[in-house]
Structure to design on (97 residues):
């Protein structure tokens, strides 16, 4: 019977950890949604403000600049993640030799 009781503790502990992780991720998702709403609202205010001072061509250039900047930031983060993963894989390979 002692073996059965100890088997439940690791499973229970793991379940608690997974539930904690789920709550943390859910909270992060809610924070991200709120942030997105605020960023969208701020983008609209900025766009309305600068559209008063820029002609159509300048405004299109600005919008293109913002779009490309965002895309490049996303790409940079993806590349950094790939580099981190590659470095981790390299470290594991070196340790296994």
């Amino acid at each position: 019977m002692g073996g059965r009781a100890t088997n439940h503790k690791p499973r229970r502990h793991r379940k608690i950890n997974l539930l904690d992780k789920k709550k943390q991720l859910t909270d992060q998702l809610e924070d991200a949604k709120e942030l997105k709403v605020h960023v969208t609202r701020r983008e609209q205010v900025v766009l309305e403000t600068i559209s008063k001072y820029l002609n159509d061509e300048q405004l299109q250039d600005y919008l293109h600049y913002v779009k490309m900047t965002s895309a490049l930031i996303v790409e940079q983060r993806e590349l950094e993640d790939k580099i981190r993963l590659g470095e981790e894989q390299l470290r594991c390979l070196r340790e296994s030799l």
